[in-house]
Prior knowledge:
There is one protein chain. The protein has helices spanning 5-13, 54-59, 78-81, 85-94, 97-110, 114-125, 129-145, 152-158, 164-175, 179-189, 211-220, 268-279, 285-293, 299-304, 316-325, 331-345, 363-366, 378-393, 404-412, 419-428, 441-450, 456-462, 470-478, and strands at 24-27, 32-34, 48-51, 63-64, 198-203, 227-230, 233-239, 244-251, 256-262. By secondary structure, the chain is α+β, with helices and mostly antiparallel strands. The protein is globular, with a radius of gyration of 23 Å.
Amino acid sequence: MYTDTERCVRAVQSKDARFDGWFFTAVLTTRIYCRPSCPVVPPKVENMTFYPSAAACQQAGFRACKRCRPDTSPGSPEWNARADSVARAMRLIGDGVVDREGVPGLAARLGYSARQIERQLLAELGAGPLALARAQRAQTARLLIETPELPMADVAFAAGFSSIRAFNDTVREVFALAPSELRTRAARSAKPPATPGVITLRLPYRAPLNPSNLFGHLAATAVPGVEEWRDGAYRRTLTLPYGHGIVALTPRPDHIACRLSLTDPRDLTLAISRCRWLLDLDADPVAVDDQLRADPLLAPLVDKAPGRRVPRTVDGAEFAVRAVLGQQVSTAAARTHAARLVTAHGVPVDDPEGGLTHLFPTPEALAGLDPEQLALPRSRRTTLTTLVGALAEGSLQLGTDTEWERTRAALISLPGFGPWTVEVIAMRALGDPDAFLPTDLGIRRAAEELGLPSTPAALTARAAAWRPWRAYAVQYLWTVDDHPINHLPL
């Protein structure tokens, strides 16, 4: 995108917010970089240059615009629509892996050398992993700086900086303001948090966003004790590297309101990344809907409520366990089975609001469970214990960095895993935008009602025209059935 100068100029001159995150505009005369939708008067064309990432802008000596705050724009939808090494690296950097494990840790997870990863990221994003991680640290630091009760020293180390000096230098370089000045600016307009220790922020997205299926699905399938819908917000517990957290996510007309309570602020970067992943906030709904609308049988569903997202998960292993528990049973039964596991094996947590009680148990915690205590058919017990064993020993990985097809092959080799279970995990845990569920009962009912082929093979052939967005087509097809997953709770 950023190499198509004419297209970029048109986007900047029209202040088109759809391209926020796709590229960044650097102004040669002011040495400032902006998002395409920046509200200021667009610069002259000859003074514009374009970069694929905020890190590339910073590396070239540009500082972030104080009006449009380009560091807070939605992420590029490319990284969620691809499974190559660059996309997987960007998802891992977004999860804070470089800060926790360094570039060697990032390379080891991807199965490449550090030099190869550096070369690939430089070629596509104009910045290496350290520069990309540094840009993310600056963004996290800004969020923490705007939380007034945190001392600046705590902000520096929580954001991932190795020293206070590096923190001060980076903030000044990126934002052209000292950390204390940033805090003063934020304090003029910010309201104090209702609860001390709670970080409140806005999660941006590309419009349109239809919250009905997104939050309706999460609320309808919520596991008691781990998740709940309360006062217009989806709340859940989070297991994080340095501790745990509780998040509340509320849909707003132009953003998602996010309230985070963390036992360790160093987990902020990963918590934000997981919340964005859960809600599929980096998607490009216009591109998705335009392609699906080309099918005359899907077009009425898209036109009725555009902008549907794929509800994902904050933890791939958790979702895989829940997918097995949900095989061939109702939503209510799946929730009951999961709640029993949570009560027996989950770690208790304190929730000031009283609705959440546990973290979802890790594979290691479930590895020692007695299958005879599970109120499941014997074959399902074998499926669950085999899955948990593979996850606990590390032979099966279900992170955002996994290769989709290789993981599908690993899943289908497990006992009791059929196409439906594999594809629903690919869709919601791995984030494959082209995952498809032709054997799903709701999809088959929708196909019959709309006049689409109803047999799995014929429907799959028809759905080839929807690629690579078949997971989004699933969200629209599910709306044909009047199910709680399609409606925001009252």
